[in-house]
From TrEMBL:
Transmembrane domains' residue ranges: none
Subcellular location: Secreted
Signal peptide location: 1-19
The organism's taxonomic lineage, starting at the top: Eukaryota, Fungi, Dikarya, Basidiomycota, Agaricomycotina
Protein name: Uncharacterized protein
Main localization, broad class: secreted
Entry's Gene Ontology molecular function annotations: oxidoreductase activity, acting on a sulfur group of donors, disulfide as acceptor
Family per similarity comment: Belongs to the GILT family.
Native source organism of the sequence: Russula ochroleuca
Amino acid sequence: MFVKGIASLLPLSLVAVYASPVAVQHSWSASTRRVPVMLGVMSRCPDALLCETLFDNVIPRVADKINISLAYIATLNASDTEFGVSCMHGSEECAGNVQQLCAAKYTPMRTWWEFVMCQNYHGRNHIGTSDVALKCARTARIDWEGSGVGQCAGSDGSGTGSEGVQLLKDSIRLTESLGITTSCTVVINSEKVCIHDGTWKRCENGHEVKDFVDQIEAAYQKLNGQSIGSN
Ligand SMILES: *[C@@H]1O[C@H](CO)[C@@H](O)[C@H](O)[C@H]1NC(C)=O
Ligand SMILES: *[C@@H]1O[C@H](CO)[C@@H](O)[C@H](O)[C@H]1NC(C)=O
């Protein structure tokens, strides 16, 4: 969906003449590697909404350099008959997590991110309801039936579709394996760089939009610089 780095679109001759040697190395990369950016969240958590709102301003500045994902914090619970999962803010939160995971699986980043922003806009106590899910699908221009999202999350919008519930369980296992326990945790290139839990915590390199952009830019240079050096 997203074009490769602008630099890779430049004719090589142009790059060779005008770019510094370091930039040339990056530009010649056949395929640039995107920086994985992950937010550890719970869909109804105020801290998650805060992080997502902040990243809504980060993403446009680094959109072609990142691969963003949401990873969910909840507890596997075989006694829960609906999801097999317990979510801190109730079963509606589990449903919201499922809806978001299904949108992320079946639509491009811009689309599912808009879906999440729309859910947040409706207020956290409505996230996970089928009403808001179906409304936000229309807002984000998701064809609920045709795209695969509806089949994944439940065609009625309930967030209880079996594929989506499985995605939620997989996501919970992932966050557990990465030691992500707090919503919201910002992870850039596999490194936990910042937490918002009532207040900002352990954000060594800052927590403003610019700070996250800078950290992503640095990780991007590192990822793509190293990959060329080893060729
Ligand atoms: C983003 O990462 C996921 C897996 O984490 C992968 O399936 C997908 O292809 C990646 N997308 C891009 C554009 O790199
Ligand atoms: C597991 O689910 C059951 C039934 O919903 C609930 O009573 C119990 O508190 C849950 N356990 C945990 C650890 O969340």
